[in-house]
Design goal:
The protein folds into two domains: 49 residues, Helicase, Ruva Protein, domain 3, CATH 1.10.8.420; 124 residues, Dna Topoisomerase Vi A Subunit, Chain: A, domain 2 (3-Layer(aba) Sandwich). It is 43% helix and 11% strand. The strands form two sheets. It has a five-stranded mixed β-sheet. The protein binds zinc ion.
C-alpha cells in the first residue's frame, strides 16, 4: 500500500483553493506551495491583507460594486447621470469601463453570469435588484455590458427580456470586442470603442 505523505493541512488548503472558480488541483497546489515557500514575513503580510479585504471590502448597497464604504463613490456622486445604468458581471468589469472615462452613468454588478453548467440561475445573481433600481431611479437607458461569451450573451438576453416591455432604451456593448473576451482584460481603447458603438436592442 502506498502511504499518503501529503500533510493534512496542505491537503485541506489545496482542496479549499480548488473550490474557487478558475482553480484546478494543480494551480491550487502551486498557490499553496508558493505561500509556504515565501519568507515568513511576506506570507503573514499576505494573510493579513486577506483579512483586511474581508473586513473592509463589501458590495455597495446600491450597485454591488466592491467598496470600503456603505455606498460607493459613484452612487453617491452628484455628477453621475442616474438615468443610465451599465450592467456588468463583476466589479472589475465596472472598474475597466470606469478607466475609459467614457461613461458617466451608474453601474449595476450582477455578480456573475448565468451558467447551466455551473448551476448558476437568475436567483443567484443580483438581477431582481437591477429591476428594482430601474423602476426606482426612473432609468431611461440600460447598457448590457456582460462579457461577450456564451454565458455573457445568455445573461444579457435574459435581462433584455425582463426589461423589453418597459419604456427604456436597452443597448448591448460588444462592437470590436472579440467573442470570448473578458471586459476587465480589454484595453482602454477597445473598451471605449465598444461603449461608443453599443447597439440598441
Ligand atoms: Zn454603488
Amino acid at each position: 500500500m502506498i502511504e499518503n505523505i501529503v500533510p493534512n493541512t496542505l491537503k485541506k488548503v489545496v482542496e479549499e483553493i480548488s473550490n474557487l472558480p478558475g482553480y484546478g488541483e494543480k494551480s491550487a497546489q502551486r498557490l499553496a506551495v508558493s505561500i509556504l515557500n515565501m519568507p515568513r514575513g511576506e506570507s503573514l503580510e499576505l494573510i493579513k491583507t486577506f483579512m483586511e479585504l474581508l473586513e473592509k471590502v463589501h458590495p455597495c448597497r446600491e450597485c454591488g460594486i466592491y467598496t470600503e464604504e456603505e455606498i460607493c463613490s459613484i452612487c453617491r456622486s452628484e455628477d453621475r447621470d442616474k438615468s443610465i445604468i451599465c450592467v456588468v458581471e463583476e466589479s472589475f468589469d465596472a472598474f475597466a469601463v470606469e478607466r475609459t472615462g467614457k461613461f458617466r452613468g451608474l453601474y449595476h454588478v450582477i455578480g456573475g453570469r448565468l451558467s447551466p453548467l455551473e448551476e448558476i440561475t437568475p436567483e443567484d445573481l443580483n438581477i431582481s435588484t437591477l429591476i428594482e433600481r430601474v423602476n426606482k431611479l426612473h432609468v431611461k437607458e440600460v447598457i448590457l455590458a456582460t462579457n461577450p461569451t456564451v454565458e455573457g450573451e445568455a445573461t444579457a438576453s435574459y435581462i433584455y427580456n425582463l426589461l423589453k416591455n418597459k419604456d427604456i432604451t436597452i443597448s448591448r456593448i460588444g462592437y470590436g470586442l472579440p467573442f470570448g473576451a473578458v471586459l476587465e482584460n480589454a484595453d482602454d481603447f477597445t473598451l471605449s470603442k465598444a461603449l461608443e458603438h453599443k447597439t440598441k436592442l
